[in-house]
Every structure is written in C-alpha cells, then in structure tokens.
Design a protein that fits this description.
- There is one protein chain.
- This protein has about 130 residues and is an all-alpha fold.
- It folds into two domains: about 80 residues; about 50 residues, no CATH class.
- It contains five helices and no strands.
- α1 runs antiparallel to α2.
Length: about 130
Amino acid sequence: MHPLPKRLHSIDVFRAITMLFMILVNDVSSVKQIPAWIDHVDANADGLGFADAVFPAFLFIVGLSLPFAIKNTLKKNESFFKIAGYIITRSLALLIMGFFHVNGENYSATAALPKSVWTIPPQLVFF
C-alpha cells in the first residue's frame, strides 16, 4: 500500500471555497431581488459580477491541481499511457454529461431518446 501523498492545504481550501461558490451562484440564479453584484452581468453590459468570476477560479484550481495529481500517480509507478487514457476517458465522460445536462432543459419530444433516458443521473451511467 502506498503512503498518502502530502497535501497542500491551501489548494484544498481554495478548491472547497470554489465549489461552495459554484453551488451558491447556480442556486441563486433563480432567486428574485438579489444584490446585483452576486448575479451574472447582462450579456450586453460591460462588466463582471461575482458569479462571472467563479468559473475562472474553477479553471485556475483545476490547472493548479493537475500537475500534483499526475506527479502522485507517477509515483505509484503507473504508466504515462494509463494516466493519459484515464484523463481522456474522464474528459469525454464530463463532456457527454455536460451535453446532456445543458440540453436537458430544452428537451424535445422529437429527440431519439425518451426523456426518462435523457435525464438519467450521469452518476448512474459513468461512475
């Protein structure tokens, strides 16, 4: 058994805060009369709201965490090709889940899949 890798608590804390903010801005989008700074700025406006800054923070923390995750996996003597295959498989699964999730709101009765299949929770399919 491999020893647990050393953790950078600052990365873990930033990741947790970012995830908390992601949940907050996703849930607050349906709330009426919230402060303007919390919500997304109108597409036609020249500005940036709090919600508009959360996704870049998420991309930053993913980019920051990835080299550490790969380094720890390489320490376990996993091959480069196995790591690359895992990254590609995981990326494709996330893209497919995102496609179904985003388009679920605009489901059409003319779609090839019935709505009950289209909206199956992705966790049941991919993990």
